[in-house]
Design brief:
Elements (H helix, E strand, L loop, with lengths): L11 H28 L1 H4 L6 H32 L2 H19 L5 H4 L2 H29 L7 H29 L2 H8 L1 H18 L6 H8 L7 H8 L1 H10 L1 H19 L6 H29 L1 H23 L4 H27 L7 H18 L1 H11 L2 H29 L1
Helix pairs in contact: 1-3, 1-4, 1-6, 1-7, 1-9, 1-13, 3-4, 3-6, 3-17, 4-6, 4-9, 6-7, 6-17, 7-14, 7-16, 12-17, 12-19, 13-14, 13-16, 13-17, 13-18, 13-19, 14-15, 14-16, 15-16, 15-19, 18-19
């Protein structure tokens, strides 16, 4: 009995679906908040005297989750490295799912005044806490079950949850726009995506409860290699990889939240696109996000994960210089090309990212280390990206938003070059 390894009973399809469904749900929850932060919350949860100020305040609540995510990484990472991947993934999913459903039940500013944005911020913190523990566990569930030569391919399945979750979230808001009047949408329709999340969470829990521990974690248990406080070990013994991993993921976060939250906000205000038209353009562009993730994974397994991400980071830096001419044109065709190129590059960088970050750390602290790098990058690259980009575009022009993106890509490129020897050892 002591020689049995429950992780070996997992079928590949079960593992990959369990890693995919969880991140799909998590990112669906996250993106419906991002969309509502632009379209709904400025009108319903903040004083309406100054629309621009209300939008900035709403984007500030959006940023809260990114500061909660490293806390979630430390908390859930501790149990993921001490207790196991499975139980921790279930707890993370419940934390974010419940936070999302409660947002759909919150009274608005007109009903309870300043308590409304305060409660919204609290729920947003809960979303970030859950996502901080979800992503790392899902990536490890996939990569630690991967056969030789397939790590990036397996590791891209939880990454696919991002475009699928975004597509579902954008699709449901687009559907509500089609079937409801503005009055109906702002009265109750916006709540539907948040409440519907409960059904997705039930599906995710069912699948997650059917899986077993990963072979890598089983080996940690057998060799008695668990550390007492994983987060302390990560900072003490793997600090350099923590910093480099955070910077490696920087460009990914900046790119994505410029292409989604900032683009939606700027496109429906300064460029005067209707909510419906811009959501359609974004949903079309998300197809490129989803399609390029597996392409990048194949490249990474064949040609090296570090080498692949180095070339993609360089391409993102060049793309930043084209941001203002394409997006600022206001042309439907050029804006669609801009969104498609940007989200296509996002898929290329996102595909191998989870595998790369997980390989920077040994198995006994991998849940904590990979989660912290990803979510600390979220603070640096995503939490304030829509806010910073809006401020730059308003005060200096869209070209400075492009410089902001190019600068982030150059930083990630340098970090990749410095971390490359460690990645070669892991390969």
């Amino acid at each position: 009995m002591s020689q049995s390894k429950p992780a070996q009973t997992n079928k590949p399809a079960t593992v990959l679906f369990a890693s995919l469904i969880g991140t799909t749900i998590e990112f669906f929850d996250f993106y419906i908040y991002a969309t509502a932060a632009v379209l709904v919350f400025p009108k319903l949860f903040f004083p309406a005297a100054d629309p621009a100020a209300a939008t900035l305040q709403s984007l500030a609540t959006f940023a809260i989750a990114f500061f909660a995510r490293p806390i979630g990484s430390a908390v859930f990472g501790h149990f993921g490295d001490r207790v196991g991947r499975k139980a921790t993934l279930v707890a993370a999913l419940l934390t974010m799912g419940l936070s999302t459903v409660v947002i759909g039940l919150l009274p608005t500013y007109a009903t309870i005044g300043t308590w409304a944005p305060a409660l919204l911020a609290l729920c947003r913190f809960g979303q970030g806490l859950g996502l901080g523990g979800e992503w790392g566990g899902a990536v490890l569930l996939a990569t630690e079950n991967a056969p030789p030569g397939k790590r990036a391919w397996y590791g891209m399945f939880p990454q696919l949850g991002a475009p699928i979750g975004f597509f579902l979230s954008g699709g449901i808001f687009l559907l509500l726009t089609e079937v409801q009047t503005d009055a109906e949408f702002f009265a109750y329709g916006w709540r539907i995506p948040f409440l519907a999340s409960a059904l997705l969470v039930i599906v995710g829990l069912y699948v997650r409860l059917k899986i077993h521990e990963t072979p890598d974690f089983q080996k940690v248990l057998e060799k008695n290699e668990r550390v007492k406080v994983p987060v302390v070990t990560v900072f003490r013994d793997h600090g350099r990889m923590l910093v480099l991993g955070t910077l490696i993921a920087l460009a990914t976060f900046v790119l994505f939240y410029l292409m989604t939250v900032f683009a939606l906000s700027w496109g429906t205000t300064a460029l005067h696109f209707s909510r419906k038209d811009f959501l359609i353009q974004q949903l079309f562009a998300v197809l490129f996000f989803g399609l390029t993730i597996p392409i990048a994974a194949v490249w990474a397994d064949r040609h090296g994960r570090a080498r692949t991400l180095i070339w993609i980071s360089a391409a993102i830096a060049v793309f930043g210089l084209a941001l203002a001419p394409l997006f600022g044109s206001g042309s439907t065709v050029q804006v669609t090309v801009f969104l498609s190129l940007g989200l296509g590059l996002m898929g290329l960088t996102y595909g191998p990212l989870g595998t790369i970050l997980s390989e920077l750390f040994p198995a006994e602290v991998r849940y904590t280390g990979a989660s912290l790098t990803f979510n600390l990058a979220g603070i640096l690259g995503a939490s304030l990206a829509p806010y910073i980009a809006t401020w730059l575009a308003t005060n200096y022009g869209l070209q400075y938003v492009g410089y902001y993106l190019s600068g982030a890509a150059v930083i990630s490129l340098i970090a990749l070059l410095l971390a490359r020897p460690r990645m070669k050892q892991a390969a």
